[in-house]
Amino acid sequence: MENICEWDSCRKSGSFKAPLEKDNSKNYRWLCEEHVKLFNKNWNYFEGMNQNEIENFLKSDLTWHRPTQKFNSSDNFFNILWNNALNDKFNFFKEEKINNNLNGRKLNEKDKDAFAIMGLELNASWPIIKKQFKTLVKKFHPDRNPGNKGFEDKLKKITLAYSHLKIIMIEK
Ligand SMILES: [Zn+2]
Q: Tell me: the pLDDT tens digits for 42-53?
């Protein structure tokens, strides 16, 4: 029986295996050629890092202050992060471990910035954050605003803020 690509809303035939965890090759998904390439690109970027290290990297100031690159360059950091944010199925963090809210966690300045960048009230719940992210991506997507550098930068900030909020929602 033929496998169908398991990437969100893709219906192509999936003949490539994509491991879900680096050290467990028995655990994999089937993808089409296009999506396995994208998957491998994301994977290589964080090669050799465990989940904690990836989280720490995404949380670090280094991430926020990284020089901006063109959004459409296929291997730039923001593109990877953005694809990751859009495709929850292939997230580094398992969706089921994400809490719906912060459960009274004390917010630091960066947490507050992240809510503000996304135009959200402090302590907005995870479903609200996800919904807002989709709305903002539609609004600021470079394809809809060709040549508008301001929109591109804004979308990068939104993507980082979204990734940051996702990380702090993860149950520890
Ligand atoms: Zn596909």
A: 655 565 666 666
Dist. CA 11 → ligand 1 center (Å):
6
* Ligand 1 center from residue 28 Cα (angstroms): 15
Digit-coded pLDDT (tens) for 16-49: 887 765 555 566 788 888 888 877 766 555 656 6
Supply the DSSP string of 70-123, one letter for each residue: -TTSTT-HHHHHHHHHH-GGG-SS-GGGB-SS-TTPPP-HHHHHHHHHTT--TT
Q: How far does residue 13's CA lie from ligand 1's centre (Å)?
A: 7
Query: 């290589």: which residue's tokens?
Result: 44
* CA 9 to ligand 1 centroid distance, Å: 8
What is the CA(91)–ligand 1 centre distance, in A?
Answer: 16
Mind listing the pLDDT tens digit for each residue in 111-137? 899 999 999 999 898 889 988 988 887
Contact between 88 and 9 under an 8 Å Cβ cutoff? The reply is no
Tell me if residue 3 falls in helix, strand or coil: coil
Q: Within 10 Å of residue 102's Cβ, how many Cβ atoms?
A: 17
pLDDT at residue 87, rounded to an integer: 57
Q: Which two tokens stand for residue 30?
A: 């089937």
75 C-alpha vs ligand 1 centroid, how far in Å?
18
Q: What secondary structure, in 3-state letters, does 46-60 show? A: CCCCCHHHHHHHHHC
